[in-house]
Amino acid sequence: MNENNEAERKWYFPKARVSRAEYLEFLKVVQGLGTTCSRFFRKVIREAIGEGPDLLAHDLKLFREALYQVAALGRNLNQLLKAFHTGQPAGILVDQAALAGFRDQVEQLRQALVAVVLRSKHRWVKHG
Hints:
The protein is mostly helical. The protein has one domain. It has 5 helices and no strands. It has helices at residues 3-8, 20-32, 37-48, 57-85, 96-121. Helix 4 (57-85) runs antiparallel to helix 5. The protein is elongated.
């Protein structure tokens, strides 16, 4: 293949040689993560070169749950603001304890999401 065709090529196919036993164990890991070999290799490469995080299915579950919860909170806040701006109900008292609890839950969610991203970003970094 000449240099011009090489530069224009969109996809490359890295390869690795492993024993049958290693391959079978690797397949178990990939299946346990709910992904494919190809998707797993792309994930490893992207994270290793700093293109991450590239989350797997179990990581994405936390984000989906967080999105659902944040959407529910947003709907509740919109309803409260609409009621406040239309004057209904008059004289709503803000429960400071509930507000503080809400703030704490949002902070816990933020910390959990940051932990998932950081875990993904540092998954391939040598420790020790």
